[in-house]
């Protein structure tokens, strides 16, 4: 009996052993290139959100975070190419930012007014969301750097999305603590006074 054996794709390619990697539809660049740093940090953010989603969460928050993780794959794809017109996916845009804003508004409606700076913590899921928020801010800073280095490449929509995402994550951390009945740790300034 004749059959054609299909080759399996290997995880390792050895093409990055010299410290270079390929952008989608584009050149090979050093692994410390600004674009690699930016989408690598977005990937890190996505992984931290995976940790968050491994905790028991209310259905609405779990579904929102799953959608955010999907968005972050899109963001990563956008950052991994110098030719976004060759991507066959819808890129993040003002609709996605509006969705985040709607989620923020809905969560804030059920939260007590914020009167102090709060310390990251509380429920373990909330603490991990705060961690995700800080990784998101780092990703945002890297993309701002891309905007300065490559102003013609149009990364501004990604900056807006990541900025709003960090706001959303802050509110979600608060919502998780509030729903769990955990008092938010607040910063009172210099406690030794």
UniProtKB/TrEMBL annotation:
Q: Name one Pfam family in it.
A: Cob_adeno_trans
Q: Which Gene3D superfamilies match?
A: Cobalamin adenosyltransferase-like (1.20.1200.10)
GO MF assignments: ATP binding; corrinoid adenosyltransferase activity
User: Which reactions is this enzyme annotated as catalysing?
Assistant: 2 cob(II)alamin + reduced [electron-transfer flavoprotein] + 2 ATP = 2 adenosylcob(III)alamin + 2 triphosphate + oxidized [electron-transfer flavoprotein] + 3 H(+); 2 cob(II)yrinate a,c diamide + reduced [electron-transfer flavoprotein] + 2 ATP = 2 adenosylcob(III)yrinate a,c-diamide + 2 triphosphate + oxidized [electron-transfer flavoprotein] + 3 H(+)
Going by the entry's taxonomy, the superkingdom of the source organism is recorded as Bacteria
EC number(s) on record? Answer: 2.5.1.17
One GO biological process this protein is involved in is: cobalamin biosynthetic process
Keyword Nucleotide-binding listed? The answer is: yes
Record localization: Cytoplasm
- NCBIfam families per the UniProt record, alphabetical: PduO_Nterm
In which family does this protein belong, per the annotation? Belongs to the Cob(I)alamin adenosyltransferase family.
Its recorded name reads: Corrinoid adenosyltransferase
Question: What is the organism of origin for this protein?
Answer: Rosistilla ulvae
Q: Which gene encodes it?
A: yvqK
């Amino acid at each position: 009996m004749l059959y054609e054996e299909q080759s399996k794709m290997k995880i390792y390619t050895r093409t990055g052993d010299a410290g270079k990697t390929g952008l989608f539809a584009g050149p090979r660049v050093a692994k410390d290139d600004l674009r690699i740093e930016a989408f690598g940090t977005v990937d890190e953010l996505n992984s931290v959100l995976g940790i968050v989603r491994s905790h028991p969460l209310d259905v609405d928050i779990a579904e929102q975070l799953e959608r955010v993780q999907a968005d972050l794959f899109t963001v990563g794809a956008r950052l991994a190419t110098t030719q976004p017109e060759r991507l066959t996916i819808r890129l993040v845009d003002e609709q996605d930012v509006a969705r985040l804003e709607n989620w923020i508004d809905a969560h804030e409606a059920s939260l007590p007014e914020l009167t102090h700076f709060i310390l990251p913590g509380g429920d373990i899921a909330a603490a991990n969301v705060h961690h995700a928020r800080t990784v998101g801010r780092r990703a945002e800073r890297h993309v701002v750097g891309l905007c300065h280095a490559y102003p013609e490449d149009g990364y501004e929509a990604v900056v807006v999305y990541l900025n709003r995402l960090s706001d959303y994550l802050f509110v979600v951390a608060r919502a998780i603590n509030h729903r769990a009945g955990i008092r938010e740790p607040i910063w009172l300034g210099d406690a030794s006074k």
